[in-house]
Design goal:
heterodimer, A: alpha/beta, three-stranded antiparallel sheet, 12 strands, 14% strand, B: alpha/beta, 14 strands
């Protein structure tokens, strides 16, 4: 199998699954229970928090465990907007957000909030000038995706953070789900107040994520209950997944040192390999993009057809993001970057992990070179 | 351009005459121990400073760790660039980007390599000009700048320094003997421990545990605090005293308004014995004068009678708000406020005597087998050792 859909989800590391099983088996008590077994589970949870904090270079009490990226994004966006609504009801985000952020803003609009959606240039990047110009006295939140899940474009979040540091009343949320372990980001230095990551994007289990909440930043909880996670996120902690996530984060960060340049090379190989293949246009910009994502369109070929054709050769890629790939039609993210509608409908996403090899890419290039001319012929005659 | 090394400047250390070498040795050991986790790093000492060679390791986490080491006055990062004007200018700009809230700066360039075509005065001008052009909200102030950027142009490379971070001050832990810290789990005693270590003393901690009246989680609080304090002290030994028999005896034999006083006297007696046994020269407590009933001068006078061990009270003169501020800064506050009762609160009577006296206390104690209770408590001590590198509890190690 050649798995090139790592932006949708990654294969959990075997060591991570071992941890998951061990914790589920041995430390099953509820961390809130008063007895010794509960105390043990509580200590393990605290340990996972400490380690996660160290790995992300933040304080452990700034770590809020969630169920994953969608929850983290929703909690950050809606929790902030609602908490600070007496201060103002104007929010800023971009046109190229993941649905978990985008739809949360749409919901807030229906509740009477006003949202500015920043446009992007041909590379898919927002401009700092636009950001600065959209700031108003009643703005309470800016939310920006770091690495775009469809194209891999990197937003200048550090610059945005620097700009926003002049506006201490505006909270800055970064959706770092695709970026973490692949595109380094120093949360403290970048002036970020809230940051979402998800375990299953870095070889961890499903059902666990982290929302970084800078000390002093406030949120209205979306899930009320037994006051776990400092009251920000109630619900009995998913201890096996949380501990396994901490392990996955450590292993991934260790692997990233050699893994990032390796993936960069492989993506370069893919680009070179597809150069001159009729109908192929890259949507991911050469510069300012993540090392693991390449998005391209194939003129005259329906992306679903290409995906299934590759699948027959045991190669797995995606159209746009897994979360919206069931809906047909053009990609909102690509349209925002000024890519024509036709091309935006034909996008294919290849996304790597540290585990992919040169052989994987060579095979994929070969398969695409064989398939594309054939499929285009069929497309023309149809 | 790269951040090449961190320069550690000593504080009071440089004043300490003959002991100087011993102090520097200790600081060197503490620094090395602190940085154990960073494999590429090398530490070098010289007469008036230490150098941490980063060898590619980002400096931020290293600085953060070193800011917990007592005996360091300031830390600064040095940027190394090629000795070419453009590289130097970019290096200076990058260095200034690293500091927060900098409004004014000046450049003090030194052309050590006289072959370099631009002389020092001119260098100041062209580097400063470049920064002004490329960084917003910054001005030159040659008299009292926030940052004095020192640029040394040598043949092989140029070094830019002046980006400073405050150190923890104080003296290196380990130069000042050992102190037994009485650790309840509350807000004050960890702060007392922190301040004791600041003056170079090593601490051992003693905790009085009374199961089932106090829970495992109350003890957990104390072990968590010890772990937190290892950030400053390196290693900490915790003596857990099984205190239930003593408390039960007190409850039986002593009228309730004197129970608190007698309990404290018993604790101090136990500490005295532990101190003798482990070569400890003083006790430290989190008592602050007049804060609660047991902390009136009358009470201290009565309690202190039972020992001739010096009892250090580093937070004695502080207000609660000051103590709380420190406890938040050193990371023990959130642990201390966990809602589990300790031995001081479980047995506290409705109306403790605020003005006890030595004579009455002594009389009441005639009804108590003081020596035997103390002896048994000391014999049953449980010892736990904490090291700062032990980030993960042993049982959990394989899981992470």
């Amino acid at each position: 199998m050649i798995y090139l859909d790592n932006s949708a989800t990654t294969k959990p590391y075997p060591e991570v699954l071992e941890t998951y099983k061990a914790v589920a088996e041995k430390y099953f008590a509820n961390p809130s229970s008063l007895h010794g077994r509960g105390g043990e589970a509580e200590r393990l949870l605290a340990q996972a928090r400490t380690i996660s904090g160290e790995l992300l270079n933040v304080h452990s009490k700034e770590i809020v465990f969630t169920s994953g990226g969608t929850e983290g994004d929703n909690l950050a966006v809606k929790g902030t907007a609602l908490y600070y609504q007496s201060r103002g009801k104007h929010l800023i985000t971009t046109r190229v957000e993941h649905p978990a952020v985008f739809e949360a803003f749409a919901q807030l609009e229906s509740l009477g909030f006003e949202v500015t959606y920043l446009p992007v240039d041909g590379n898919g990047q927002v401009s700092m000038e636009d950001l600065e110009n959209s700031i108003r006295s009643d703005t309470t939140l800016v939310s920006m995706i770091h690495v775009n899940n469809e194209t891999g474009t990197i937003q200048p979040v550090e610059e945005a953070g620097r700009l926003l540091s002049k506006f201490p009343k505006i909270q800055f949320h970064v959706d770092h789900v695709q970026g973490v372990t692949k595109v380094p980001l120093e949360l403290k230095k970048a002036g970020i107040d809230l940051c979402t990551i998800s375990a299953h994007k870095f070889h961890g289990p499903r059902g666990a994520g982290i929302l970084y909440v800078r000390e002093g930043a406030n949120l209205l909880p979306l899930i009320s209950g037994g006051s776990q996670e400092g009251g920000i996120r109630s619900g009995t902690e998913n201890l096996p997944a949380i501990v396994a996530m901490a392990k996955a984060l450590r292993l991934s960060l260790e692997a990233s040192k050699g893994g990032i340049p390796k993936m960069k090379k492989l993506i370069g190989k893919l680009r070179d390999g597809l150069e001159g293949v009729g109908g192929v246009v890259f949507n991911t910009p050469q510069d300012h993009s993540a090392p693991h994502i390449a998005n391209f369109s194939v003129e005259g070929v329906k992306p679903e057809v290409l995906i299934h054709a590759l699948e027959q050769k045991d190669i797995y890629v995606s159209t746009k993001s897994a979360c919206s790939s069931r809906e047909s039609g053009a990609s909102r993210v690509l349209l925002a970057a000024g890519i024509p509608e036709k091309r935006a409908e034909q996008a294919i996403r290849v996304s790597l992990s540290f585990e992919n090899s040169k052989h994987d890419i060579e095979e994929t290039v070969k398969a695409l070179k064989d398939l594309i001319p054939e499929l285009r012929k069929v497309g023309e005659s149809a | 351009m790269m951040f090449d090394n961190i320069i550690i400047r000593y504080g009071e250390l440089s004043l300490k005459g003959k002991n100087r070498n011993q102090f520097i040795d200790r600081l060197y050991t503490n620094v090395k121990r602190k940085l154990e986790g960073f494999e590429q790093i090398r530490v070098k000492r010289s007469f008036d400073r230490m150098y941490v060679r980063l060898n590619g390791q980002p400096y931020q986490p290293v600085i953060r760790k070193l800011q917990d080491v007592f005996g360091i006055q300031t830390l600064s990062v040095a940027v190394k660039t090629e000795s070419e004007l453009e590289a130097i200018q970019q290096g200076a700009l990058a260095a200034l980007h690293e500091v927060e809230n900098v409004e004014t700066f000046k450049v003090s360039a030194k052309r050590i390599d006289k072959q370099f075509p631009i002389h020092s005065q001119e260098l100041n001008r062209v580097i400063g000009g470049y920064v002004l052009k490329n960084k917003e909200d910054i001005k030159v102030d040659v008299h009292r700048p926030d940052v004095d950027l020192r640029v040394e142009v040598k043949k092989e490379a140029t070094y830019i320094t002046g980006i400073e971070f405050p150190g923890a001050g104080g003296l290196p832990v380990g130069v000042g003997g050992k102190v037994m810290l009485m650790l309840s789990g509350g807000i004050d005693s960890p702060v007392a421990g922190f301040l004791t270590m600041k003056r170079g003393a090593e601490i051992e901690a003693v905790h009085f545990h009374s199961p089932p009246f106090t829970s495992e989680r109350a003890k957990q609080k104390v072990t968590d605090i010890c772990r937190e304090l290892t950030n400053f002290g390196g290693r900490i030994r915790l003596h857990v005293i099984h205190f239930t028999p003593v408390q039960e005896a007190i409850n039986e034999a002593i009228p309730d308004n004197y129970r608190m006083t007698i309990m404290r006297r018993m604790m101090l007696r136990i500490v005295q014995q532990l101190a003798d046994k482990h070569g400890v020269l003083a006790a430290a407590t989190g008592e602050s004068l007049g804060q609660v009933a047991s902390q009136t001068l009358e009470s201290m006078n009565t309690i202190n009678e039972v020992t001739n061990l010096p009892v250090l009270r580093p937070v004695l003169s502080m207000d609660k708000t000051e103590i709380t501020a420190i406890s938040k800064r050193i990371g023990t506050y959130d642990i201390s406020i966990r809602p589990y009762e300790d031995c001081c609160t479980v047995f506290v009577p409705a109306a403790p005597k605020t003005k006890p006296n030595r004579e009455r206390a002594g009389q009441f104690e005639l009804n108590l087998k003081v020596d035997q209770l103390v002896k048994e408590a000391v014999e049953n001590t449980e010892i736990l050792d904490f090291k700062q590198s032990e980030q993960v509890e042993e049982d959990f190690q394989e899981l992470f």
